[in-house]
Amino acid sequence: MRHAFGFVLGVLLTPALVYGAAWGYVQAGQSFDGTGQEITDRTRIYGAFALLAAVGLVMGVIILARWASPLVSLVPALALLGFSAWFLVDPGRVLDLPGKVPPAGDMDFGLRMLLGSGLYGMMGLALLMPSWAPRRWSGNRDDDGADMDFYGGMEPDRHADRRMR
């Protein structure tokens, strides 16, 4: 059941990560002038950076969450790596794909730029890492066993009070 929920969550998170990063990239790019070296729209750039930070935060939680099934990160990882590999094999067909998927407009530019720059490949590799940990696949959630061994030697010395006298 945990892996079924993880698969569904991974399917839902994939477009959220892809579109969130693309929209944040487009909004950030439209809010500053690179040649004049100035920010032209502070509100827009703050919102874009907040969205990009939220995408990074969600990725970090997906990568580090011990409770989550590895499918939560594996599904978006395989999608991002698959599109990146497809881009390297046939860039024309992949770059035409955002025009066929809603919403159209500035989002298409962001999707194409992040795919072509390799950022989606980098995100995919980062999301692939948790699926390599064997304990993430097991249903046994005894993650604190090693912690108990570490803290087991730190019991208070009951005889220390008598020695002090």
Strand content: under 5%
How are strands sequenced across the largest beta sheet? 1-2
> What is the approximate shape?
globular
Main sheet, how many strands, which sense, barrel?
A: 2 strands, antiparallel
**Helix fraction by DSSP (H/I, runs of at least 4):** over 70%
Structural class: mainly alpha
What is the average of the pLDDT values? 82
Unreliably modeled segments: none
Count of distinct strands: 2
Distance between the termini: 59 Å
Order of helices and strands: HEEHHHHHHHH
Evaluate the radius of gyration: 23 Å
Number of continuous helical runs: 9
Describe what you observe in this structure:
The longest helix is centred in the first third of the chain and has 29 residues, at 2-30. The chain has helices at residues 2-30, 42-64, 71-89, 91-96, 106-117, 119-128, 134-137, 145-152, 160-164; strands at residues 32-33, 38-39. It is globular. The protein is mainly α and 165 residues long. It is built from 9 helices and 2 strands. It is 70% helix and 2% strand. Helix 1 (2-30) crosses helix 3 and helix 3 runs antiparallel to helix 6 (119-128). A hairpin with a 4-residue loop joins strand 1 and strand 2 (38-39). Strands 1-2 form a two-stranded antiparallel ribbon.
